[in-house]
Write the structure tokens for this entry.
Amino acid sequence: MELSNRQEKIIEIVKDNGPITGENIAGKLDLTRATLRPDLAILTMAGFLDARPRVGYFYTGKTGSELLTEKLKKLKVHDYKSIPIVVKEDVSVYDAISTMFLEDVGTLFVVDENSCLTGVLSRKDLLRASIGQKDLNTIPVHIIMTRMPNIAVCKKADLLIDAAKKLIDRQIDGLPVIKETDHGLEVIGRITKTTITKVFVELITDNHV
Ligand code: ADP
């Protein structure tokens, strides 16, 4: 987050004089306590300062990047997952390609009659199947998909950073978010490279730090 000049000054004062009361910080800046209140609230919420009742403000000693790391480690898959686009195993390659265009996604998840995961279809899987094939209406996707148990998945309670690491390690574009059920792994969401890119931008622009 971008700190204002005044907020930078407050941090310097607290670094040099902490613990120090809001009243005394205000005195050093020739401002009233009321004027300073929003700045102190922001700096405390962002983690630069710590406030103890009847003692005053401390400098936490955390740098912007340390605070960013702390924030990142709190983000969960649950809060960022988007709706999964799924197809059944007997759908044709032609229909899967149509679904990919209509839904504007790059990865489809293949499920059985219980909405449980059986496979994944990426753009390249469908391209590969299309090369030289005359009738894409007759090839069911279960013939060409990447199938269980070789599919990388995540759960809603997982950290987003761990899901991002899986995308990198496995060199894939998306992960299904799954819930374990008696029938198998039910697909309840998806995390993609787009999800991670959005979070990256949001962290910088939305004063999340
Ligand atoms: P693209 O085909 O557009 O490069 P990916 O990099 O996501 O897209 O896919 C590469 C291969 O990995 C494909 O064969 C695909 O079926 C497979 N794949 C995609 N997602 C997963 C996943 N979550 N787990 C295992 N394999 C996957």
User: Anything to note?
Assistant: The mean pLDDT is 92. The longest helix spans residues 33-46. The first strand starts at residue 49 and ends at 52.
